[in-house]
Structures are given as C-alpha cells and as structure tokens.
Amino acid sequence: MAINEKMLEEILNQYPAKVKRNRKKHIIIRDPEQARQEIEANTRTIPGIITNRGCAYAGCKGVVLGPLKDMVHITHGPIGCGYYSWLTRRNKAKSEDPTNNFLSYCVSTDMQESDIVFGGEKKLAKAIDEVMEIFKPKAISVSATCPVGLIGDDLNAVVRAAQERHGIKIMAFNCEGYKGVSQSAGHHIANNILMEQVIGSGDLEEAPGKYPINILGEYNIGGDSWEVERILKDIGYTVLAVMTGDGSYEELKNAHVAELNLVQCHRSINYIAEMLEVKYGTPWLKVNFIGVQATIDSLRNMALYFGDAELISRTEEVIAREVARIEPIMEQYKRICQGKTAFCFVGGSRGHHYQGLFGELGIETVLAGYEFAHRDDYEGREVIPDIKLDADTKNIPELHVEPDERRFRLKVSPERMEELKKKIPLSYYKGMNVEMKEGHIIVDDLNHYETEEFIKILKPDIFASGIKDKYVVQKMGIPAKQIHSYDYSGPYAGFNGAIKFAEDVAMGFVSPTWNFITPPWKNKPILEGTVEEGECAKC
C-alpha cells in the first residue's frame, strides 16, 4: 500500500500547526517527474519530539576519532558522556603490537559538581599525565562535552602545556554536544583538526606501492574494512590509510601521498576529501561497498580512474571469481526474502547504500531517510551552492586550505578529469533521492510518532535502523535489522558481507519469535461500519 498526500496530511494533522509546517518540509513522496524535490535537512529537531540523533560530541569522538587505535581518546566531561568513549559502534581493530591498540579502554575525566563550579582544567591535565604514565601512546585526543563549553575550560591551553611536557601530539576537539544540530557537526570538527594537525605531518613523499589509495568514511563496523581491504589488496591496490576504521594516527600522517581517495560515507568525511583535493591535488571517488553490484561498480570505477590495462584485467578476474562463489549462496536467501518490503532509516549514507543490497535480495525499500544528513545527501551535490547557512552551521569553524607548495601535484590532467567525470562519480555524489521509486517516502530526522504511523500504513516486512528504535519496532511485530553496529554480526560490506547480511535478514524473517507478537493493527477489525435501517427493513 502506498501513501498519498492526503494520508500524509492526516499523519501531520496530529501536530500543532507550527510543528506541522516544520515537519512537512522534512517529508516528501518521491515524484520522478519533478526535476528536483527539495527536502529540509540539517536543522534543529523540534523540542519535545523523540529523535534518533546524537550530539556533536558523539559525531566527533564516537564516529570519527574513536576508531583510531594507536591513540588514547580522553573524554573531558561527566562520566555519562563517556558512553561514547566505550565504542558503542563495534569499530574493530587489530595491531601487530597489542600494547599499541587502545580501543578497549574508556578514559574520562569524570567531572563532578565541584569541577563544574571551580573548573576542570587541573583534572584534565592530571588525566593526560596519567595516560602518558600508564599507556605511553603516540598521540592523544581530548574531546569536550557540553559542561566543558558552558563553564569555559580552556582545552587548547591545557593541551598545549601537556604537549610541551610529554613531547607527543595531543589534540583538543571543542566538540561540545550542543554545537550544530546533530552529530554531523562533530564530524566536521574532527575532520578539520585531523586535516590541520595530522594529515601531511608524515615524512613520505611517495607511496610505498602501486595504485595507492585512502579509504575515507569507513569505520570497520563488524569488520567491514577488513573485507573491503581484502578485495582491494587482492586486486593490487596499496591501502595507505583508512579513516578511521582499524585506522591509526601513524598511517593517517602519510595519507597525503595517495593517488585517489575513496569516499564511502559521504556525510561524515566529504569535508576532508575536498580539503585533500585542494591541498594535495588528490581527487576523491564516491564508492559504495554495500551490496554485490555496488561493490562491482565501485571496483570498476576505481580501475577506470587509474586506466591501467593490467589493473582493469585483474579487477574483472576478482569480480568473476567472487560472484561465481557467492551467487549460489545468495540464491537460497533470495527465495526467503523475495517480494518483501523494508524501511531503511539510518545515519550517514547507509539509508542509501543498503537499498541496493535489499534490492538484490528481492526486498523493496518503500521508506528511507537519514538521521543527520544535509540536503546534498538527499538531492545531490548540485544543491550545495543553494543551501543557506544558518546560525547553527556558522557555529562550526570552516577550515580553508591552500595548495601545498611542496606536495601539491595533479594526479590526472584537467582534460582527463573532465573526461572521467562523465563516466564515474569523481568528486561527486548524486544523492539518495534519484534512486528512490515513485511513491516511496523520503524522511529526514524521522521521529518515533511518524515511525509508528508509517508502519501502520505501509506494514513493512523489515525495519533497518540504528540502535535507538529497534525495540519499539520489534514490539510491533516487525523484524528490526540494526545496521548501526550490526547486532553483533557482520561484516556487511563487500562480497562476503553481502552473504552475511542476506543470512541475517533471512534468519529474521523465518524466526518463530514473530508468532508470539501481535502488531497493534491486528487488534482492530479490517472493516468498520454501522448498520442503518433502510426501506427494506420496514417491509
């Protein structure tokens, strides 16, 4: 069953008039006949509405910084904020030197009431000294939480003094949770500091192997990065740095020598991809390693960029081998999944990426959206010049870089760049909307009320989301596929990941659990009406 404008109006009519006007801008029914359907995004959630978003601190520390394994990450704030210090996203990492992998540690200054009153700078300085004494890391990050910004602790001064004492890189991230409107602001803050203080600080001037690349916006949830790297290294690529899944401070220092940057999650990493292109002349390519066909397309686009006949041939060999291996396995899961429908509401680019993988299993995505996207994530990068900056956006410092006098080098000629842009998404992302079918729903910052209403009408067979709403959905009798941290499963990227995802989804459908749950709408009669006395009744 599809939703029309009248049905959407009925859902929105439950809001106060002002709230209704606001939320209506965040929801569109896909109409391919329209050249562009504008959607409101990256604006403040209405107070009182239950949102799935996180804060700027969650985006900075919890998403971008946290997976860097050879750094100790200190959260400066109350211990409650340390929730994101405990790596809730399952960013896996391994190291040849176990003493140089700090991902399993949670470090917080545990600010108390007295620290809020008298300041927490001394406590932070002591925490840094203790970290150096115990762990002796190569670098330290310090991330601020809301109270720190409110009381005015000078993170930068504390960090500068600590850096002089210990002689290692220590970075301050002023990512107080209230900055921006969601975790997207934290991504931007983290990107700026890593670009300014880490990338390019290494000594390499040339890559140590052929076809050198960086993978940006890949966080190795459930081992995704390891599966992607397996494929790329088999083909012949040299992976210099991953930002930041199973990534390291030491590798990131030399990311400037890459010949191409791959952008997986557009939202969290497009800032640094653009700055790398300006400063070092390294183009970025939008890729998607979620789904079989998406992985194939990304691999072929990469090979086309480098234009090497041997690389193109090896790419096709690996694709043919992998597809022949996984096709029979995927077929058994397709028989279970065929003809079903899905909601796909997740942060980052996942609301878009997973639609292709669902489609390969025969599952149609009838509603999709993002928690913290910007308009270009929906409508494509063409709209960026038209986006008006509001006060919240201006609150995030813009880092303007210039071409590096010593290291800037065009990786391909301007003529070839223009030729390639006609064939592959170089420095470009088309957005999610263009791939949504007519009548499908696109929602920004979907809240719990709207979730329940859309479920009642569309009755999806599976709900793919983050961690905050899965239990509500399951109580409505619908399997929830958690694709924020994969419900302790994964990987879901690449060829092996597609098999694992198909297995998990099919297992969700055939589970007997759902026989014991009655969705709310099943307690209501399908038809409702009254019997009125007519002429025949009088006879």
Automatic annotation (TrEMBL):
Pfam families: Oxidored_nitro. The keyword Nucleotide-binding applies. Residues 55-507 form the Nitrogenase/oxidoreductase component domain. Keywords: ATP-binding, Iron, Iron-sulfur, Metal-binding, Molybdenum, Nitrogen fixation, Nucleotide-binding, Oxidoreductase. Belongs to the NifD/NifK/NifE/NifN family. Tetramer of two alpha and two beta chains. Forms complex with the iron protein (nitrogenase component 2). This molybdenum-iron protein is part of the nitrogenase complex that catalyzes the key enzymatic reactions in nitrogen fixation. This is Nitrogenase protein alpha chain.
